[in-house]
Design brief:
- The complex is a heterodimer of chains A (475) and B (117).
- By secondary structure, chain A is α/β, with parallel strands linked by helices.
- Chain A has three domains: 6-122 and 265-335, FAD/NAD(P)-binding domain; 125-262, FAD/NAD(P)-binding domain; 373-440, Arc Repressor Mutant, subunit A, CATH 1.10.10.
- In chain A, strands 1, 2, 3, 4, 5, 6 and 20 form a seven-stranded mixed sheet that branches.
- In chain A, helix 5 (139-149) packs parallel to helix 6 (164-175), helix 11 (314-331) packs antiparallel against helix 13 (345-355) and helix 15 (388-396) packs across helix 17.
- The longest helix of chain A has 18 residues, at 314-331.
- Chain A starts with 5 loop residues before the first strand and ends in a 5-residue tail after the last helix.
- The mean pLDDT of chain A is 95.
- Mean pLDDT of chain B is 85; it is low at 103-117.
- Chain B has 117 residues and is mainly beta.
- Chain B has one domain: Ubiquitin-like (UB roll).
- In chain B, a hairpin with a 2-residue loop joins strand 2 (17-22) and strand 3.
- The longest helix of chain B has 7 residues, at 35-41.
- The chains are: A alpha/beta (475), B mainly beta (117).
- Chains A and B meet through strand 8, helix 5, strand 9 and helix 19 of A and strand 1, helix 1 and strand 5 of B.
- Strand 9 of chain A pairs antiparallel with strand 1 (2-4) of chain B, so a sheet runs across the interface.
């Protein structure tokens, strides 16, 4: 669609948080637009829910199809919606924000008084030897192929890693009639003992029954190897097999598809570039935007909802989307504080319900250090093909942090802009220096946060100030 | 490595075939798929070689994050295959190494329309 030039609230991302935030904002009578990179609403969790060719509903499961309700409410709301649209900049202009967008190869600048980031999560980097080989991909990527294209693994497939999503994907493949040869579970042996204190909360959570049935289904349908300590992808030019070690014993198995997963982390490229404060979250081993219980960041007018403000899952994201909208409406003077608080009671109750058991999941599935902090020739930065050894040698030369590391090695400077190496680089430097990840810090990210052509930038309408900035001889 | 679920055509009215080429060879793509999904459906795991070391890569994240699925589409290099829907008549090429500088490659191979004379 064609967007207007001004909105009260711009929502970025059409997952559960963004859909809920946009629908709630419109219901309060505000002028709202939602922009999203995908061609249809749903985010990654409800990816392709309006277009999926997988119509046999038990394949993707009831929790997936729940998203239909959310998308329908958003579509009924009449909020502005621009799919296939990438946000590459958000900057403050007087008392508004200017947002740089790119859609179908054309750039555009629009303005909004409040911005809600609902940019979701991405899979945590899983740097193992050979993880750049064709045939190795994230488990989430294979799930996207299932949801959006009805494609399932058809050869010799190995799943590896830990976390609930890994078992959910195994269950979905099985329901779709696809075969998984083997699941290599890297959850450290004995982790159960450390997390028992959080178990009662999890057992009382809505996730417990589903988690248990997924585990049971996977155990019936595929070989599961527990306590896997090392994994390598083997092959020249493409994946031929997987080498893994468990209990000190190493073996090779043939495979043409290796699907990696060790949880998801907030996508922070946009919030970081905007300048919002972030902190190291030790429980989830990632950097997270620092927000209050409405999702408000350190920058007035920028609110973050859903997994982009800390991983808590789809149903929590939906509640946090509603809360972010209430906060933004209140900040616009559209809602009195008392009204805001009254309307927040129901979503806060939902949030509490769906956050129960989170500590248990975080503690049980925090990936072991050896799967987060690689060594030797393992590639850390996929874009610039920088290895762990190069990083540690550069620390030995005196390099103290990720931003200086860019100057030495160009890590984080390729097209993905650190999305696939940032956390690894931070933890690797921190380990080598014997300091905390918090002290080591993260890449300082800058606009444009996604690549945009010079042609697109040049085609933007010029303002007097932008001309003055580059024209040295006054007319 | 990937196969299509059986009897999808029976469910979805959009499941018609689009005539595209992959590295010059004709292929019948499914309407609704992305370019990266089309490559997997064609049995291809790799879609490019890297500019730095020339190593083979294939789509990795399928959600616009990793930029490993870069391909040449209708002569335009560095396109994110996982973000672009496949279209009728599309010419998809796997991308070898770094993209050519537009001026050296000529306008047909990389310059954006608005930048052309």
């Amino acid at each position: 669609m064609t967007l207007a030039s001004r909105y009260d609230i711009l929502v970025i991302g059409a997952g559960p948080a963004g859909l809920a935030a946009a629908a709630e904002s419109v219901a309060m009578g505000l002028r709202v637009a939602l922009v999203d990179e995908q061609g249809a609403p749903g985010g990654q969790i409800y990816r392709a829910i309006t277009t999926t060719p997988v119509q046999q509903r038990d394949v993707l499961g009831a929790d997936y199809w729940y998203g239909e309700k959310l998308v329908a409410a958003f579509e009924r709301s009449g909020a502005g919606y621009s799919p296939r649209t990438t946000v590459w900049a958000v900057t403050r202009e007087a008392d508004e924000f200017q947002i740089g967008l790119s859609c179908d190869g054309g750039a555009q600048l629009i303005r909004a008084r409040q911005v809600i980031l609902a940019t979701g999560a991405q899979e945590r980097p899983f740097p193992i030897p050979g993880w750049t080989l064709p045939g190795v991909m994230t488990a989430g990527a294979a799930q996207i192929l299932l949801k959006s294209a009805g494609l399932v693994p058809g050869g010799t497939t190995v799943l590896a890693g830990s976390g609930p999503l890994l078992y959910l994907i195994a269950a979905q493949f099985t329901a779709a009639g696809a075969r998984v040869e083997c699941l290599l579970d890297t959850t450290p042996a004995g982790r159960w003992r450390d997390v028992l204190r959080h178990a009662p909360d999890f057992v009382a959570s809505p996730y417990a029954a589903k988690g248990w049935s997924m585990l049971r289904a996977a155990q019936r349908m595929m070989r599961i190897v527990k306590g896997v300590e090392q994994i390598s992808a083997i092959g020249a030019g493409k994946l031929d097999g997987v080498r893994f070690t468990t209990g000190g014993h190493t073996q090779d198995i043939p495979a043409d598809l290796l699907l990696l997963h060790q949880g998801v982390v907030p996508g922070i490229n946009l919030s970081n570039a905007i300048g919002c404060a972030h902190h190291w979250d030790a429980a989830q081993a990632c950097f997270t935007p620092t927000v209050d219980d409405w999702g408000a960041t350190s920058i007035p007018g920028i609110t973050i909802a859903g997994d982009a403000a800390g991983i808590a899952g789809a149903r929590s994201a939906e509640a946090r989307g509603t809360l972010a909208a209430l906060h933004a409406a209140s900040a616009l003077g559209h809602l009195r504080t008392a009204q805001r608080d009254a309307q927040a009671v129901a979503p806060r109750r939902e949030l509490e319900r769906w956050n129960r058991g989170r500590k248990f999941v975080d503690a049980l599935y925090l990936p072991a250090p050896e799967f987060r902090i690689p060594t030797g020739d393992t590639i850390v930065c996929r874009c610039e093909e920088v290895t762990a050894r190069q990083v540690t040698e550069t620390v030995a030369l005196g390099c103290t942090g990720p931003n200086q590391m860019k100057s030495f090695l160009r890590c984080g400077m390729g097209p993905c802009q650190g999305r696939l190496c940032g956390l690894t680089i931070t933890e690797l430097i921190a380990k080598e220096r014997g300091v905390s990840p918090a002290e080591t810090g993260y890449y300082r990210l800058r606009f444009p946060v996604k690549p945009i052509t010079l042609g697109e930038l040049a085609a933007l309408p010029q303002t007097d100030s932008s001309v003055d900035a580059v024209v040295r001889i006054k007319r | 490595m990937f196969k299509r679920l059986p009897d999808l055509a029976a469910f979805h009215p959009d499941a018609r075939a689009l005539a595209v080429t992959i590295d010059g060879k004709p292929f019948a793509a499914r309407a609704g798929d992305t370019v990266a999904a089309t490559l997997f459906a064609a049995g291809l795991a790799d879609c490019r070689t890297t500019p730095v070391l020339g190593s083979a890569r294939g789509p990795f994240c399928m959600m616009g994050v990793c930029f490993d699925c870069l391909v040449v589409i209708d002569g335009q290099p560095n396109q994110q295959g996982c973000m672009i829907p496949v279209g009728e008549g599309m010419r998809i090429q796997r991308q070898q190494g770094a993209r050519a500088v537009a001026a050296a490659a000529g306008p047909a191979d990389g310059m954006t329309p608005e930048a052309q004379p």
